[in-house]
Amino acid sequence: MLLVADLVLALHLLWILWVIFGALFTGGRVFLTAVHILSLVWGVIVELGPWPCPLTIAEQLFEARAGAQTYSGAFLTHYLERIVYPDLPESVLVVAGLTVCIFNLAVYAWRYHTRLRSAH
To answer: What pLDDT, in 10s, does the model give residues 24-53?
Structure first.
């Protein structure tokens, strides 16, 4: 079960990278753009809402079943804060996450605006 927990953790990291950098890979691909925009909306909901991320819940479940010590709190707080953002409050991480999502949505708005201008 610990291997499954590690795979979920890897998937979680890939998800975060997709949310952060997905706009770089969606240009001209309508389906990928739609998936990334939905991913960004999901990221905003999870950051602002009281609900934990399902990937965090799955990871903790598999760790517990494997007998490993689980953590409490958000994925970002548990892993990334210790590595990248030592001694920063969780609210700073939430703001950073929201900033990334808003920036990506702004990229899409700019692309849409550019296409509209070039079409006229």
So the answer is: 899 889 999 999 999 998 988 888 888 888
Tell me the pTM. 0.67
Per-residue pLDDT of 83-116, as tens digits, reads 544 567 888 878 888 898 898 999 899 989 998 9
- The beta-carbon contacts of 17-22 under 8 Å, at least 24 apart in sequence, are 19/43, 19/100, 19/101, 19/104, 20/100, 20/104, 22/104
Tally the domains of the chain: 1
Residue with tokens 């990229």: 107
* Alpha-carbon span 35 to 31, nearest angstrom: 6
Closest CA to 100 of 7, 12, 15, 8: 15
The residue segments making up the domain with residue 33 are: 2-119
